[in-house]
């Protein structure tokens, strides 16, 4: 199907160096994209803008994905109208954006993002001396400089993302040989790769994301500087990197994305603690992270919900477990050691990817569960079952076991317990009491209980809070 679609893209002219000031124009007959494939709301936005005398096109991911026979995630529109002019043309429009202004036109649940043509990087000599502000490293800090359609094409990241579709004439405008690269399944930056990464290092992550999503190769020159420039990601605001990480791992191709991130040294700047754990204990760490990503991809393929909390819990666990064990060796009780290590790790990770509290809280609850699941005596097992985080905690336990962790059959015990009748459950707890009577409350791996240096315990046993 994909091959057929790619073959159906007929090249109107021979390939030339990019970018161009006059586009290649693909007429209706030269490409497989049909007007009816564009969302009705995007069509109405484009038509309204065009009737008001502005240029307007469907652009970016939607044109790329439709040419590849994939369902677009959303529809973006590029226009010569300024954000204020766009807002004036629609009642249901809102201006948004910090890095640059965009307009969101709302149609119930669908949002059409309308961006004004912008001029991009500095190579362009602008007659009016308007230029984007640059950081010393070349990073663009502010690029709300409006431009022409040609300039807009040039400032986009990859050639395959710089295709403009006009639903009126049903033509595609191709300024950067994007159609050629779609046909050859290549991710290629527009312009000088090194400079484009320095302007915005997130483009390195985007290269990997699109390579994984589309199963494309990253073109040689586009790939070459990535490993050297990967550390530039450390200067990117943590909130933006968090959003990018979600797109990287929650788009259905997380496992391949992870491999590419590691291959290009991009994983360490995003997850430094996990990267260290991968070096120290590669077999377990990689198995756990990989299995979590495989499960995530599978859930997405089945249309099941996925949560960033579980994903981050898994990505960070290989770094957390040894830290908690270390604190335990110094004499902290297992539950306190885990909580202290978690606190420290979350603070550290948020400096790189700002994980919002609504995800760090459940993430830490999933981790807490790992310490509580071995303690099942008395009413504890039933209280744990009622805990809203039980399911995630249990899934996480199975994940740890699938990575080769020895838990003395704990996962299987919980599987049976969930399926058991009341009397069977009582029996299972009784057997447990006999078996574990020597050390009823400690997980198998727990170090002998030592007193903290100050002599006092900080908190009561965590299990007493079960079922909160
Ligand atoms: P998808 O929505 O499927 O993830 P997309 O290509 O639509 O992919 P968006 O992040 O929605 O990606 O961005 C829309 C378009 O804006 C891109 O296709 C690209 O042309 C441009 N763009 C986005 N981010 C950048 C960037 N960092 N540098 C240059 N251009 C960018
Ligand atoms: Mg998009």
UniProtKB/TrEMBL annotation:
<feature type="active site">
    <location>
        <position position="157"/>
    </location>
</feature>
<dbReference type="Pfam" id="PF01743">
    <property type="entry name" value="PolyA_pol"/>
</dbReference>
<dbReference type="GO" id="GO:0005524">
    <property type="term" value="F:ATP binding"/>
</dbReference>
<feature type="compositionally biased region" description="Basic residues">
    <location>
        <begin position="448"/>
        <end position="460"/>
    </location>
</feature>
<dbReference type="Pfam" id="PF12626">
    <property type="entry name" value="PolyA_pol_arg_C"/>
</dbReference>
<dbReference type="GO" id="GO:1990817">
    <property type="term" value="F:poly(A) RNA polymerase activity"/>
</dbReference>
<feature type="region of interest" description="Disordered">
    <location>
        <begin position="425"/>
        <end position="468"/>
    </location>
</feature>
<dbReference type="GO" id="GO:0043633">
    <property type="term" value="P:polyadenylation-dependent RNA catabolic process"/>
</dbReference>
<dbReference type="InterPro" id="IPR032828">
    <property type="entry name" value="PolyA_RNA-bd"/>
</dbReference>
<dbReference type="InterPro" id="IPR025866">
    <property type="entry name" value="PolyA_pol_arg_C_dom"/>
</dbReference>
<dbReference type="InterPro" id="IPR052191">
    <property type="entry name" value="tRNA_ntf/polyA_polymerase_I"/>
</dbReference>
<feature type="domain" description="Poly A polymerase head">
    <location>
        <begin position="56"/>
        <end position="188"/>
    </location>
</feature>
<keyword id="KW-0067">ATP-binding</keyword>
<comment type="similarity">
    <text>Belongs to the tRNA nucleotidyltransferase/poly(A) polymerase family.</text>
</comment>
<comment type="function">
    <text>Adds poly(A) tail to the 3' end of many RNAs, which usually targets these RNAs for decay. Plays a significant role in the global control of gene expression, through influencing the rate of transcript degradation, and in the general RNA quality control.</text>
</comment>
<feature type="region of interest" description="Disordered">
    <location>
        <begin position="1"/>
        <end position="21"/>
    </location>
</feature>
<dbReference type="GO" id="GO:0006397">
    <property type="term" value="P:mRNA processing"/>
</dbReference>
<keyword id="KW-0507">mRNA processing</keyword>
<keyword id="KW-0547">Nucleotide-binding</keyword>
<dbReference type="InterPro" id="IPR010206">
    <property type="entry name" value="PolA_pol_I"/>
</dbReference>
<dbReference type="InterPro" id="IPR002646">
    <property type="entry name" value="PolA_pol_head_dom"/>
</dbReference>
<feature type="active site">
    <location>
        <position position="74"/>
    </location>
</feature>
<protein>
    <recommendedName>
        <fullName>Poly(A) polymerase I</fullName>
        <ecNumber>2.7.7.19</ecNumber>
    </recommendedName>
</protein>
<dbReference type="GO" id="GO:0003723">
    <property type="term" value="F:RNA binding"/>
</dbReference>
<feature type="active site">
    <location>
        <position position="76"/>
    </location>
</feature>
<keyword id="KW-0808">Transferase</keyword>
<keyword id="KW-0694">RNA-binding</keyword>
<keyword id="KW-0804">Transcription</keyword>
<feature type="domain" description="tRNA nucleotidyltransferase/poly(A) polymerase RNA and SrmB- binding">
    <location>
        <begin position="215"/>
        <end position="276"/>
    </location>
</feature>
<dbReference type="Pfam" id="PF12627">
    <property type="entry name" value="PolyA_pol_RNAbd"/>
</dbReference>
<feature type="domain" description="Polymerase A arginine-rich C-terminal">
    <location>
        <begin position="331"/>
        <end position="456"/>
    </location>
</feature>
<keyword id="KW-0548">Nucleotidyltransferase</keyword>
<dbReference type="InterPro" id="IPR043519">
    <property type="entry name" value="NT_sf"/>
</dbReference>
């Amino acid at each position: 199907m994909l091959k057929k679609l790619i073959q159906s893209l007929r090249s109107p002219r021979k390939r030339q160096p990019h970018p161009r000031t006059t586009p290649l124009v693909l007429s209706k007959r030269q490409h497989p994209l049909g007007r009816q494939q564009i969302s009705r709301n995007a069509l109405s936005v484009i038509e309204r803008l065009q009737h008001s005398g502005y240029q307007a096109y469907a652009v970016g991911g939607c044109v790329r994905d439709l040419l590849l026979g994939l369902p677009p995630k959303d529809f973006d529109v590029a226009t010569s109208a300024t954000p204020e002019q766009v807002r004036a043309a629609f009642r249901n429009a809102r201006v948004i954006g910090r890095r640059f202004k965009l307009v969101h036109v709302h149609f119930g649940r669908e949002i059409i993002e309308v961006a004004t043509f912008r001029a991009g990087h500095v190579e362009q000599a602008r007659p009016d001396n308007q230029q984007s502000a640059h950081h010393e490293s070349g990073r663009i800090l502010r690029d709300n400089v409006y431009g022409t359609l040609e300039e807009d094409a040039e400032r986009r990241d990859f050639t395959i993302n710089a295709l403009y579709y006009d639903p009126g004439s049903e033509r595609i405008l191709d300024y950067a040989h994007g159609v050629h690269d779609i046909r050859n399944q290549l991710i290629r930056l527009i312009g000088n790769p090194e400079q484009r990464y320095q302007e915005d290092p997130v483009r390195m992550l985007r290269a990997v994301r699109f390579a994984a999503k589309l199963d494309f190769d990253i073109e040689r020159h586009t790939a070459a500087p990535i490993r050297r420039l990967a550390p530039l990601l450390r200067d990117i605001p943590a909130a933006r990197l968090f959003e990018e990480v979600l797109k990287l791992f929650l788009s259905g191709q997380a496992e391949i994305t992870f491999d590419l991130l590691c291959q290009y040294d991009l994983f360490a700047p995003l997850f430094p603690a996990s990267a260290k754990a991968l070096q120290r204990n590669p077999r377990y760490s990689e198995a756990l992270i990989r299995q979590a990503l495989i499960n995530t991809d599978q859930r997405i393929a089945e249309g099941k919900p996925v949560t960033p909390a579980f994903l981050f819990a898994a990505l960070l666990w290989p770094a957390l477990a040894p830290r908690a064990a270390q604190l335990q060796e110094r004499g902290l009780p297992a539950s306190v050691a885990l909580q202290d290590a978690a606190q420290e790790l979350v603070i550290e990770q948020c400096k790189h990817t700002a994980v919002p509290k609504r995800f760090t809280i459940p993430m830490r609850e999933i981790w807490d569960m790992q310490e509580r699941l071995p303690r099942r005596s008395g009413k504890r097992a039933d209280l744990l079952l009622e805990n809203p985080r039980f399911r995630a905690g249990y899934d996480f336990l199975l994940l740890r076991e699938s990575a080769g962790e020895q838990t003395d059959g704990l996962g299987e015990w919980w599987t049976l317990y969930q399926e058991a009748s009341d009397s069977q459950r009582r029996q299972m707890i009784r057997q447990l009491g006999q078996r574990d009577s020597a050390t009823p409350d400690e997980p198998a791996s727990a170090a002998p209980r030592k007193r903290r240096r100050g002599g006092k315990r900080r908190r009561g046993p965590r299990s007493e809070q079960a079922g909160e």
